[in-house]
């Protein structure tokens, strides 16, 4: 296994007063493993962060995701810092190959004891079980080995529904009858749709990596989820109109939920959005310039590390030996408080929601740092 520090220009390009603590490149050509691990800040405790598999990876994206986890964990008041790991590869690779790569990754990070791996795009509770088997340090585990399976219960999607309920009055919206669009109908998006439709919302558009569908009269969430769980795609749903994936951006709705890759909303397409609220289910799904434009257009944007913290909160509860019911209660409590606090601060101080959210999180990180002998 080759383990290298990045070139100095990469290492320090994104460094600031908060981190990163370490940036590591991992390479094992015989097993096809190429990965990046960024441990951003551990002042509050060992960092929890997702391990994702994606065709293209970069230090910049990994750092940005790690910083989002630092803010997410701090805003949620968790005894954990933030990190992110990215493995280069096809998320749909054969299971045998995925197991080999994940286990090789686990062995490579065995001595990075301030990083606790969690599931992310391309990984799930089974992958976390493989990591746990190798090094005994992961979260989001199967029930059979004491875990609270995040994807099964939809912890992140549940948290998004809580954030939406709190945020709705800030943009004069009722969830009853609200039209929602989910970009990325996967582990996060399908559960967000489920919980929101249980509150009376109507799913009118959805997409995945293979295409998109739309139906203003409503898409049956349970039926679409069944198709996805069986290995199908949203385009296999026969009762909605297939549309171009790019057209999903301009589909009229009340709540638009990006729940897939980073940077799906940019300055180039933000003006095409036709919604009242942006509920950020993915990590860093909106560029900084686009987020400013959302505010200028009067679209309420609930920042990612506030709205989508349900998964990591659940993971932290699991790590401490808590229960599923206890995790859901804590998710509701923390996300409700933080969403309200950020949006009230945004309104009262006449600033965008993201600066209000960053201020909340950064103050908590700085406080944690002040209580430690910082190395």
Verbal overview:
The chain is an alpha/beta fold and 375 residues long. The chain has 2 domains: 2-66 and 80-147, Rossmann fold (3-Layer(aba) Sandwich), CATH 3.40.50.10860; 155-363, NAD(P)-binding Rossmann-like Domain (Rossmann fold, 3-Layer(aba) Sandwich), CATH 3.40.50.720. Helix content is 40%, strand content 18%. It is built from 13 helices and 13 strands. The strands form 2 sheets. Strands 10-9-8-7-11-12-13 form a 7-stranded mixed beta sheet, with helices on both faces. Helix 9 (288-296) links the parallel strand 12 and strand 13 (300-302). The protein is globular, with a radius of gyration of 20 Å. The mean pLDDT is 93.
Which features does this protein show?
single chain; alpha/beta; Rossmann fold; 6-stranded mixed sheet; 13 helices; 40% helix; globular
The tally of structural domains comes to: 2
Order of helices and strands: EHEEEHEHEHHHEHEEHEEEHEHHHH
Strand content: 15-25%
Number of strands: 13
Class from helix and strand fractions: alpha/beta
Low-confidence stretches: none
Tell me what the CATH architecture of the largest domain is.
3-Layer(aba) Sandwich
Helical proportion? 40-55%
Summarize this entry quickly.
By secondary structure, the chain is α/β, with parallel strands linked by helices.
Set out the fold topology.
Elements: E1 2-4, H1 8-13, E2 22-28, E3 33-41, E4 47-54, H2 59-75, E5 82-88, H3 95-108, E6 115-119, H4 125-135, H5 150-153, H6 155-167, E7 179-183, H7 189-198, E8 202-208, E9 211-214, H8 221-229, E10 241-243, E11 255-258, E12 277-279, H9 288-296, E13 300-302, H10 304-307, H11 310-319, H12 324-349, H13 353-370
Parallel strand pairs: 4-5, 4-6, 7-8, 7-11, 11-12, 12-13
Antiparallel strand pairs: 1-2, 2-3, 3-5, 8-9, 9-10
């Amino acid at each position: 296994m080759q383990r290298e520090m990045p070139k100095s220009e990469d290492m320090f390009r994104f460094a600031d007063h908060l981190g990163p603590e370490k940036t590591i490149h991992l390479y094992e050509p015989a097993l096809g493993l190429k990965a990046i691990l960024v441990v951003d800040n551990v002042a509050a405790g060992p960092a929890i962060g997702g391990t994702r598999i994606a065709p293209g990876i970069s230090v910049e994206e990994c750092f940005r995701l790690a910083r989002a986890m630092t803010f997410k964990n701090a805003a949620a008041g968790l005894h954990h810092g933030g990190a992110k790991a990215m493995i280069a590869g096809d998320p749909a690779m054969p299971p045998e190959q995925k197991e080999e790569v994940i286990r090789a990754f686990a062995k490579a990070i065995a001595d990075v004891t301030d990083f606790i791996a969690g599931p992310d795009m391309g990984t799930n509770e089974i992958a976390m079980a493989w990591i746990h088997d190798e090094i005994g340090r992961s979260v989001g585990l199967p029930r059979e080995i004491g875990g609270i399976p995040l994807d099964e219960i939809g912890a992140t999607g549940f948290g998004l529904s809580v954030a939406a309920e709190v945020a709705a009055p800030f943009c004069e919206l009722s969830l009853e009858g609200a039209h929602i669009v989910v970009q990325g109908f996967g582990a996060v998006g399908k559960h967000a749709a489920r919980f929101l439709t249980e509150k009376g919302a109507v799913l009118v558009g959805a997409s995945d990596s293979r295409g998109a569908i739309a139906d203003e009269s409503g898409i049956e969430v349970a039926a679409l989820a069944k198709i996805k769980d069986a290995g199908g795609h949203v385009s296999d749903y026969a009762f909605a109109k297939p549309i171009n994936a790019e057209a999903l951006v301009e589909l009229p709705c009340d709540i638009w939920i990006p729940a897939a890759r980073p940077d799906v909303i940019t300055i180039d397409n933000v003006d095409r959005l036709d919604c009242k609220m942006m509920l950020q289910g993915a990590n860093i799904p909106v560029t900084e310039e686009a987020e400013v434009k959302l505010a200028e257009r009067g679209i309420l944007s609930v920042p990612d590390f506030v709205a989508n913290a349900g998964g990591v909160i659940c993971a932290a509860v699991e790590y401490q030996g808590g229960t599923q019911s206890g995790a859901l209660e804590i998710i509701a409590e923390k996300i409700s408080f933080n969403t309200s606090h950020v949006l009230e601060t945004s309104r009262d101080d006449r600033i965008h929601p993201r600066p209000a959210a960053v201020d909340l999180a950064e103050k908590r990180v700085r406080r944690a740092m002040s209580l430690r002998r910082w190395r």
